[in-house]
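Section 5: illustrative case.
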């Protein structure tokens, strides 16, 4: 099978998780090879980085070629795919440049700051005839896929309510403090809660109405509580926070209540199911690195020339629109707004 050559653009915090995922895939012989890293700050290649997922010891080893110029890297390496791990406000600019240069692009979430920017990126991918996939990585998480399989099986009946939490201290990393500037990051709701907004859409489809309240801190809307109202009566609530203390560990959990059972995930162990009839039980499924599975999926689409039905950029665009609709609701003091993704 043909082997894809990949380069990472931006070697900050989250890129270390991507680097580790490429190493895992290489160890199993999957035909993707990370060949180069590019960052405007060469010091990034040799230092460890601490983010809310913990400290990464991954540095620029593996005999990778290192660049501080994107143009130099593209000319020398001729990668098939560039994995964009830049700050959000740079996503559109660099994704457009890469697509027009003729490479496939994987880009970290959120896709961009606005749905209009996302639309421009999608048009560029279509015009270039190249794949563009956004890193809504929980679509490849074993825990969330186990929940989807359980729901789709009908064994626990119709979902009634779901509560998701994603809690972190305020990011103290990031190039030039960009997370703290809502005009560059979109704040906690677009950067952090977007994972859960995307999962709600992935699991249940599109909500018809939404509402959110928020509390400002060092950044606007540093804490938020959102409600997504679905046509069948399902209500999903999402609590997101950059408001926790510096020593508070990153925490993500969910609890789903359905007609015949409650499903609980504590963020560390496999899902627990508490049925109305019978004893509680733990679901069994293999643990996988969701970053590696995300990369594997895009690479398979490219190598086999197949369509991306699982995580298309049009869906990532609608998740950005949903996050921004909820930000608007919070700015209006919790006003209920209709959500119209089209």
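Designed sequence:
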């Amino acid at each position: 099978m043909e082997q894809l050559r990949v380069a990472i653009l931006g070697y900050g915090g989250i890129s270390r998780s991507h680097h580790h995922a490429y190493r895992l895939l290489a160890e199993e012989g999957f035909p993707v090879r990370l060949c180069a890293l590019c960052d405007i700050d060469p010091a990034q290649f040799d230092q460890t980085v601490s983010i809310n997922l913990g400290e990464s010891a991954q540095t620029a080893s593996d005999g990778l070629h290192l660049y501080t110029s994107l143009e130099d890297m593209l000319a020398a390496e001729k990668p098939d795919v560039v994995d964009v791990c830049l700050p959000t406000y740079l996503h559109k600019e660099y994704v457009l440049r890469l697509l027009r240069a003729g490479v496939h692009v994987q880009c970290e979430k959120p896709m961009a700051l606005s749905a209009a920017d996302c639309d421009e990126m999608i048009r560029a991918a279509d015009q270039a005839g190249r794949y563009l996939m956004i890193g809504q990585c929980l679509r490849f998480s074993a825990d969330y896929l186990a929940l989807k399989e359980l729901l789709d099986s009908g064994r626990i009946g119709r979902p009634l309510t779901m509560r998701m939490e994603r809690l972190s201290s305020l990011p103290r990393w990031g190039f030039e403090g960009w997370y703290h500037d809502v005009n560059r990051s979109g704040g906690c709701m677009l950067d952090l809660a977007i994972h859960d907004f995307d999962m709600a859409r992935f699991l249940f489809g599109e909500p018809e109405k939404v509402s959110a309240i928020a509390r400002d801190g060092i950044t606007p809307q540093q804490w938020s509580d959102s409600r997504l109202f679905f046509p069948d009566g399902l209500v999903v609530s999402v609590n997101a926070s950059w408001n926790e203390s510096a020593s508070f560990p990153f925490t993500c959990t969910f609890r789903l209540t359905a007609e015949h059972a409650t499903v609980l995930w504590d963020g560390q162990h496999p899902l627990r199911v508490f049925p109305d009839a019978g004893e509680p039980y733990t679901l069994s499924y293999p643990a996988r690195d969701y970053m590696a599975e995300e990369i594997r999926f895009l690479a398979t689409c490219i190598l086999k020339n197949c369509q991306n039905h699982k995580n298309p950029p049009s869906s990532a665009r609608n998740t950005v629109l949903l996050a921004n609709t909820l930000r608007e609701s919070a700015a209006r003091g919790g006003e209920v707004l209709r959500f119209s993704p089209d």
